[in-house]
Amino acid sequence: MIRDVISNDGYVISGLISLSIIIIAKTINSRRFSDLTRVFSNSNYFRIYLKEHSFLDSFDFLLFLNFCINITTYSYVIYCCLIDLIEINFKTFSTIFLVILLFILVKVLTGLFVGYVFDIYKTISVLIFQQISTLNFIGIMLLPVNLLLAFGLNYQIEWLIISVSFVIIIATAGMLKTVYTNLNLVLSNFLYFILYICTLEIGPYIIIYDQLKDYNIL
């Protein structure tokens, strides 16, 4: 099937910005960056950097911005694969980027607030740190995925499905690793953990899904 040719300048720009951010983050702390890229092969990253972690330090914040950029770009790739070829529009891109950024920040701050109210701040902060680390890892991996789908694979649906499966596997592995590395902590606060999962992990996505259905987006 022959597909229309569109300008990929937006992917080039977002890719260059993403690459620049990753290089800056690696320059800030090359050892930590190296450990993050191996976060699923060993537990050193969570064990070492949780102790010296401060909420969204410069390293985490840069890679979190990188995640937001790449997940926004990925949404364009998904749209091009499943619906129609479109060029990246700066206004729309900025809107999606800000929505994702604010959604995750509000979710994180709400989690920290709940932890403070129920006196489980340490438990929640550990979970959030590991979740942000997983998102940062996904953001790094999405950079080559986006460029490959846009340039090398011409938005082929088959490769999109593989990439989505890849992202889901990473996210699931991150969640399981988080639970496993904090098993005693989770079991000792099991009721609060279930409450946290239902209200802050599952609840927001159900609300978003219902809103999208109401607007006939899904």
Question: Could you explain the architecture of this structure?
Answer:
There is one protein chain. With 218 residues, the protein is an all-alpha fold. The protein has one domain (9-214). Helix content is 80%, strand content 0%. The chain contains nine helices and no strands. α1 (9-28) runs antiparallel to α4 (58-82), α4 packs across α5 (90-117) and α5 runs antiparallel to α6. The chain is globular. The two termini are 26 Å apart.
Give a quick account of the main beta sheet: strands, pairing sense, barrel closure: none
Structural class: mainly alpha
How far the N terminus sits from the C terminus, by CA atoms, comes to 26 Å
Q: For the CA atoms, what is the radius of gyration?
A: 18 Å
Number of domains in the coordinates?
1
Order of helices and strands: HHHHHHHHH
Strand content: under 5%
Low-confidence stretches: none
Overall geometric form: globular
- The whole-number mean of residue pLDDT values reads 82
Could you give the count of β-strands?
Answer: 0
Helix content: over 70%
Number of helices, counting only DSSP H or I runs of 4 residues or more: 9
Offer a few descriptive terms.
218 residues; mainly alpha; 9 helices; globular
